[in-house]
Amino acid sequence: MEMIAVSAIIPEEGIKMISEAEKGGKTLKGRIYQSMLEDILNGKYVPEEPFTEKELTEKYQISKSPIREALIELCNEGILRSIPRYGYEVLRIQQKDVMDAKEARIILECGALDAYFDKITPERADYLLNILDEERPASEDILLHWDRNSRFHIALMDSYGNAFLTDTLKRSMILMKRAYAQYQYNKWQRLTFKGTATGHRELIATIRSGNKAEAVEKLRRDVASFDTSFLS
């Protein structure tokens, strides 16, 4: 059988991406998936503006197979929808989607804190405080704030050592960030957030005091305070 050089099939940029993916222990499909997700969260792909596989192969300079696999995964997660004989489109998030996600977060996060309360060691509490110390209290872009807020909640969930719970929470946080990004695109303006991490600090202080019931209630109020009215 005649051997064909890899460079004859995949352009140099694609080969570089494959090499980087192998070094990082990630598949090429995984790298494309992450890149697409970041573009969606940053508003580069928005509802009612379809795009094609051909556009993506030209962008990434690689074959269709890993791109198609990444697109299928995004469709399975309810982020994209396939348009037969044309391409793909970002699914629009409705207010009910976000409200359902918020209710799920309350059940998930509060239930996990109640069940795994004793797993939050003093060292872990210090780590969570360090995350908060990195935040700036001044008014800032809402997507940046949401990334920092997500980091705290995911780190708290990660304290319990249950990867399935952490992955489930990550998906809910991504949906909520998509809602913010969608709003900003629709309204042609940037939402802002004014505030500090005071609530999160109080939560950690309550955890350190050993008052589980109060800590669970503080966490419930924190998650419930997420505003969904901007989607109406």
Name some characteristics of this structure.
about 230 residues, mainly alpha, two-stranded antiparallel sheet, 10 helices, elongated, disordered N terminus
Task: Reconstruct the topology from this structure.
Elements: H1 12-23, H2 28-41, H3 53-60, H4 64-76, E1 80-83, E2 87-90, H5 95-116, H6 122-133, E3 140-141, H7 142-158, H8 163-187, E4 192-193, H9 198-209, H10 212-224
Antiparallel strand pairs: 1-2, 3-4
Helix pairs in contact: 2-4, 5-8, 5-10, 6-9, 7-8, 9-10
Describe this structure in words.
With 232 residues, this protein is mainly alpha-helical. It is 64% helix and 5% strand. The protein is built from ten helices and four strands. The strands form two sheets. A two-stranded antiparallel ribbon has the order 1-2. The protein has a two-stranded antiparallel sheet with strand order 3-4. The longest helix is centred in the C-terminal third of the chain and has 25 residues, at 163-187. The radius of gyration is 21 Å and the shape is elongated. The termini are far apart. The model is unreliable at 1-25 and 188-195 (pLDDT under 50).
